[in-house]
Request: fold
Amino acid sequence: MSQPAPASPATLPAPPATPGAAVTHAADQTRPGGSTPASLDQVGAVELAPSRTARQLRWLSLGVVATGLIVGVVGALLLSYLALSLHRAEADTAQLLRVQRLQTDLLGADANATNAFLVGGQPAGQQAAYDRALTETGALVAEAARAQPADAAALAALNQQVLAYATVIEQARANNRQGFPVGAQYLRNASAQLRAGALPLLDNLVAANEARAAAEMNVLPGWGLVAVAVLGLAVVVTVHVWVSRRFRRRVNPGLAAAALLLLALVVAATIALTQLVGGVQAIRDGAFAQVNAGADARIEASNAKSNESLTLIARGSGQAFETAWAASATAVTSDLEQLATGPELQDRWDAYAAVHTRIRQQDDGGGWDTAVATATGTGANSANSAFTAFDTALAEDLASAHARTGTALAGQQPGLVVGALLSLLAGVGAALLGRRGVGARLREYR
Amino acid sequence: MRGPSRRPLVALWVLCAALLSGCSLGAEDPTPLPAPSTSAPPAPAAPPTTPAPCDNALASYAPDGALPAPDALPPGSTMAKIRSRGRLVAGVSADTYLLGSRNPLTGAVEGFDIDFVKALAKAILGDENRYQLKVITAAQRIPSLRNGDVDVVARNMTITCDRWTQIAFSTEYYRSGQKILVRRGSRATSLADLGGQRVCAPRGTSSMETLVRRAPQAVAVGADSHTGCLVLFQQGAVDAITGDDTVLAGLAAQDPYAVVPDQAAFTDEPYGLGFNPAAVDLVRFANARLAQMRADGEWTTLYNRWLRAPLGPAPTPPRAVYGRTR
Reply:
């Protein structure tokens, strides 16, 4: 602040316009012959040390202006930051959905590949479904890497895994086509590699984006505005007390107006932030929680479907896959409870689970071929149709929960932008009013 | 100086912006990659256990007279129980080409071993298709018999004294021998030539035990099955595979770069059907059925169907040896 610069332009009302460095000298010289204030008898203190008081007043003016500007700027920054943060939470939620869809696609592709193997030959329908899932996977990986650079490394690793998986599946298919049983071994290896290599990456991606979205839905920094405004208010009130004591006037209109403005800012910000906290919490507990639960249910469900096929392929030695199916089924049910969209989804899942139970009974009862027919058929009572009915309904619910999250997050942002502008205005206003208040006293030195 | 110049204001802006962006507006933490799976090198097989000695591993239980008709099974016998269940449950391989493998075109598991399951099913249930297959790995053969998951194991299983202490065997139904499979162009013709090379065999098999015992200088690599070994071979992770000549013939038939060089088998691998040690009546019954198949030419028909092309004309069926008593 102490710049012995050549007379700085008069940005402040500085009655005895003397450069700071020379204040003492100049004041000493001007005092005797200088204009004695008319109200000398009233303002004894000023008479005693007018130059000192003037200097103090100038510093106070500077302090009040700085305080107002700091409150305004910090407030505007904080609220803009909050708005940006919620905007990013929206993007994180979209990314979360993307990586969850990747996971569902890959598990679905694997279920189709294993199913095609179960049926024997190379059924065109399942082949097409597998191809579709892998094509979408490629597009989603590219899209997700664009949307969140922080995911790029993990997505690149995932891409490698998917490529390796697809290569092994092709080897399985080529061998299958020639009637070589080594094809089945390649298929098992591909499935195992997908679970050991790609799924942990996707778990990390889901966890990271969930954590990012949750972290961005944090309103805490907003309270910094209230804190700064309270501090600013304290500074202005202190200056007001100092000035009114020194000049024996009860109220300094400028400073008082600045204080009132800051007080209004504190009150308004507190009310608005309290509402925002409630709003964001409602999103986290509501639509956003539903996105998480719904996506998790979808992943677990496709995992279960894939394990159903693997159990049949293992043909009597698939207890581990059946145990995995049961674990996934429990997870789906608990996710659906959290999703809280009514009993319809649970009913559809139960319908699929009933078909699964029938498949297990058929297989355990020696009817492996019947079980395979139930598992891979597309008729009314097949596992595929029951599962598709569930998965389609769940996908719709998930999309709607995602849309609600986005809308709700976007709904909070305009208020924050307006708030940022208002706090900037309030800060600047307080600065101007405060300067005017102190300036009124300073003018008495002219 | 007089009043606030612009510089402090700018500095303030920058400071606030820096502080805020420091919070989280900057680059996000990159998504962590999972720790690289420290895949342990393929576990070498357990050191060979000292084989349990016995006079004649091939001796099984003699049949109880002629083979009873399916509707005249002794009441209370294991066969009667299987009949009342309605199907014979067999533990088999689904990926040992020619012996027991899944035909990718039809989805059916078929092969030389499977045909013995069919023959047994026909004798007990009167219908060669009333059987249920449980696909098991080599290492699961003995446990699945002992805990009653399957009635019979027909999965190229070598009769040994050691295994007789845990399960029961039928009489020998095929005589195989252990050989090596190598990459086309290799000069190796025996285990001794494979020093320092990576040789694959399925875990828990006599092939693995022989490999570790006879070629300690080779790097033994385990897999779940011989087909698993073929995948490792095709991926360049192993240089050779060792196993029974029947199995190796099935592997070589799937890969033009894999050859079984001319060589003398370095072990005798007499195959038997495995049973629960308590089901002696079922073993006697199976032996009667096998005797029938040797005598009426069915054995030769089965051999010709599966093994003649890769292994040459049918030999005489292995002789049945009886004399075991409990």
About this structure: The mean pLDDT of chain A is 85. Residues 107 and 195 of chain A are 9 Å apart (CA to CA). Chain A touches chain B through 74 residues (CB under 8 Å).
